[in-house]
Amino acid sequence: MKFLLQRLAFYVFTAWAALTINFFIPRLIPGDPVTSLINKFQGQMSTEAINSLYVLFGLDKNASLWSQYVDYWGQVFHGDLGLSFTFFPTPVADILKQSLPWTIALVGITTFASFMIGTSLGVIAGWRRGSIMDGLLPVTTFLSSIPYFWLGLLAITLLAGPNSFFPSSGGYEPGLVPGWTGSFIGSAIQHSLLPALTILISSVSGWILTMRNMMVTVASEDYITVAHAKGLSERRVMVSYAARNALLPNVSGFALSLGFIVGGTLLVEIVFSYPGIGYNLFQAVGAKDYPLMQGVFLVITLSVLVANLLADVAYLLLDPRTRKEG
Amino acid sequence: MSAPTSTITAVTPEGPEVPSNPAAPAKRRRLRFIANPKAATGLVVLAFFCLIAIIGPWVAPYDPSARSSDLIQPPSGKHWFGTTHLGQDIFSQVLVGTRGVMFVGLLAGLVATALSILIGVSAGFLGGAADDGLSALSNVFLVIPALPLIIIVASTIPSAGDLMVALVIGFTSWAWGARVLRAQTLSLRRRDYVEAARATGESTWRLITFEIMPNLTAIIASGFVGTVIFAVMSEITLAFIGISTISEWNWGTILFWAQSQQALAQGAWWWFVPAGLAIAVLGTALSLINFGIDEFVSPRLRSSGHTKVKTKDGHSVRMRVGFTPVLSSSREPVTPVVQRRAEEEVA
């Protein structure tokens, strides 16, 4: 319990740090891109909306930095992230609410699947060191060195086309209305197959490699020799003795590298025009839509923090030592 | 954008032995690193890209931005990698673009490595409140997704050139290295040789640079290589989504134009394949160097060639670390130890 509380405190601290970074970045922009955007949309915005942008981007030069900071926090807690200019006049929070489920479904499931598949393959590769599996390592290294987005481009060229089963862009068939209907879910799955495959192929090798190396290290421990000496089956020694112990560092590694992975997978959304957060970020960058950019950064960071917390809970369940009282 | 590939987390290099002839073993040790086929391959490929980065702009057959009338031509003798929608030569663009990629990768790697040494080693060595503060700082930077942060910072800077991009990447991606270095420094700082140096009245500064740092070389090197991989990927990503200036050529810029001009729809595979392959090959080379460093430090990780041993009577046994197989093939009966000892006493 103490472990979990410590982690929780750390995540709260990190969330505070991320929000503070988010507060300072726009204040360091030389010039005033947001003011010019506001001027461009003059007359179409309510005073309230302009006001919230003033608070978020520190355009009110008369207020002290501290009072700006306090106002900023008040606004973020109300879920007010300003208006998006790309999708004028939709508030940023609404856009993110719409696209977040897509990203969580695609990136969440594929990252988890890639971790599971990579870890299982790594268990076998590490256990049978020197077998064909080791020959596969350079191949997977090459695959993981390919940028996600480029693999996506390649997948579109090779597999998607007008007559192909795989659609090349979008999250669902244009005519369908999002909802819990069979045809919509089927279409959504069909559209997510290719992006998911892309993420899977390029992210799986990292897990294979770390798990293999952990297995090789664990395989020389005394308890493995004892397990062999007891005459336990090969399979049992591999899974319940070696893999179980080798898994722990991999799980904590998983938590730490989530930030890297999520960053990369957002690009896949861009290539496939998948209606998630990553695609929003791309649109925002193209249009210099700072409110949307900031909102995307905030949501991604908070999601990664939640995912980290889940990984910690998993670690707690896997490692009995952290459960010890005292 | 994968996780850092190095897995060195808890290596415990011993203090340097004192050889009778200092020059020869040192040389052999260095050669051993190069003799590792993975490291050797990686170094050769990396050297090749460095060479291209230096001479690329001079040997490029065309000006990468110059337009011509050969619009969207597939590869031919005249244009090795084909041409773009404006008739620009893609081979020249790849050659010229190498310099920006290598420059940003290496500079960001240097900045991040310097920061990670500064923060990681001082956190590990000083301990106490300084350690708590610095580790919290690096954990925060580790958990915050780096790429979106880089994208936002880079897009708020007007006309982000190569130098700016390199600095932004360097200042946001030092955390992993700092974490690993801190862990290793913690395990080193109470070693006998460090205590001995401390007892002779060495200053803290000298302890860190001359006693601790040499034993961190492998970790620093692999951290550097890992950061370069990440920096190259991030830089290309920035160019690809159109944040850094598109007037400077790099591989990401080529992909940016290929994407925005619908190269895919036109079937112009030559437009994005060469740049992507170059990225993948460079990334693989750097990863291979990192595997070489890992295996150099921890020989157990090597993929050993002959683990299967065939015994005379046709059984095959697989050798494994920590597990000695019993071969049941010995022809002559095993002499019991007690009996042999008895025979020796008689003799």
Automatic annotation (TrEMBL), chain A:
<keyword id="KW-0472">Membrane</keyword>
<feature type="transmembrane region" description="Helical">
    <location>
        <begin position="295"/>
        <end position="318"/>
    </location>
</feature>
<feature type="domain" description="ABC transmembrane type-1">
    <location>
        <begin position="100"/>
        <end position="311"/>
    </location>
</feature>
<feature type="transmembrane region" description="Helical">
    <location>
        <begin position="136"/>
        <end position="160"/>
    </location>
</feature>
<keyword id="KW-0812">Transmembrane</keyword>
<dbReference type="GO" id="GO:0005886">
    <property type="term" value="C:plasma membrane"/>
</dbReference>
<comment type="similarity">
    <text>Belongs to the binding-protein-dependent transport system permease family.</text>
</comment>
<keyword id="KW-1133">Transmembrane helix</keyword>
<keyword id="KW-0813">Transport</keyword>
<protein>
    <submittedName>
        <fullName>Peptide/nickel transport system permease protein</fullName>
    </submittedName>
</protein>
<dbReference type="Pfam" id="PF00528">
    <property type="entry name" value="BPD_transp_1"/>
</dbReference>
<dbReference type="InterPro" id="IPR000515">
    <property type="entry name" value="MetI-like"/>
</dbReference>
<feature type="transmembrane region" description="Helical">
    <location>
        <begin position="254"/>
        <end position="275"/>
    </location>
</feature>
<feature type="transmembrane region" description="Helical">
    <location>
        <begin position="102"/>
        <end position="124"/>
    </location>
</feature>
<feature type="transmembrane region" description="Helical">
    <location>
        <begin position="180"/>
        <end position="209"/>
    </location>
</feature>
<dbReference type="GO" id="GO:0055085">
    <property type="term" value="P:transmembrane transport"/>
</dbReference>
<dbReference type="InterPro" id="IPR035906">
    <property type="entry name" value="MetI-like_sf"/>
</dbReference>
<feature type="transmembrane region" description="Helical">
    <location>
        <begin position="9"/>
        <end position="29"/>
    </location>
</feature>
From TrEMBL, chain B:
<dbReference type="InterPro" id="IPR000515">
    <property type="entry name" value="MetI-like"/>
</dbReference>
<dbReference type="InterPro" id="IPR035906">
    <property type="entry name" value="MetI-like_sf"/>
</dbReference>
<keyword id="KW-0472">Membrane</keyword>
<dbReference type="GO" id="GO:0005886">
    <property type="term" value="C:plasma membrane"/>
</dbReference>
<feature type="transmembrane region" description="Helical">
    <location>
        <begin position="269"/>
        <end position="293"/>
    </location>
</feature>
<dbReference type="InterPro" id="IPR025966">
    <property type="entry name" value="OppC_N"/>
</dbReference>
<comment type="similarity">
    <text>Belongs to the binding-protein-dependent transport system permease family.</text>
</comment>
<feature type="region of interest" description="Disordered">
    <location>
        <begin position="1"/>
        <end position="23"/>
    </location>
</feature>
<feature type="transmembrane region" description="Helical">
    <location>
        <begin position="163"/>
        <end position="181"/>
    </location>
</feature>
<feature type="compositionally biased region" description="Polar residues">
    <location>
        <begin position="1"/>
        <end position="10"/>
    </location>
</feature>
<dbReference type="Pfam" id="PF00528">
    <property type="entry name" value="BPD_transp_1"/>
</dbReference>
<keyword id="KW-0813">Transport</keyword>
<keyword id="KW-0812">Transmembrane</keyword>
<feature type="transmembrane region" description="Helical">
    <location>
        <begin position="39"/>
        <end position="60"/>
    </location>
</feature>
<keyword id="KW-1133">Transmembrane helix</keyword>
<protein>
    <submittedName>
        <fullName>Peptide/nickel transport system permease protein</fullName>
    </submittedName>
</protein>
<feature type="transmembrane region" description="Helical">
    <location>
        <begin position="216"/>
        <end position="243"/>
    </location>
</feature>
<feature type="domain" description="ABC transmembrane type-1">
    <location>
        <begin position="102"/>
        <end position="290"/>
    </location>
</feature>
<dbReference type="Pfam" id="PF12911">
    <property type="entry name" value="OppC_N"/>
</dbReference>
<keyword id="KW-1003">Cell membrane</keyword>
<dbReference type="GO" id="GO:0071916">
    <property type="term" value="F:dipeptide transmembrane transporter activity"/>
</dbReference>
<feature type="transmembrane region" description="Helical">
    <location>
        <begin position="101"/>
        <end position="125"/>
    </location>
</feature>
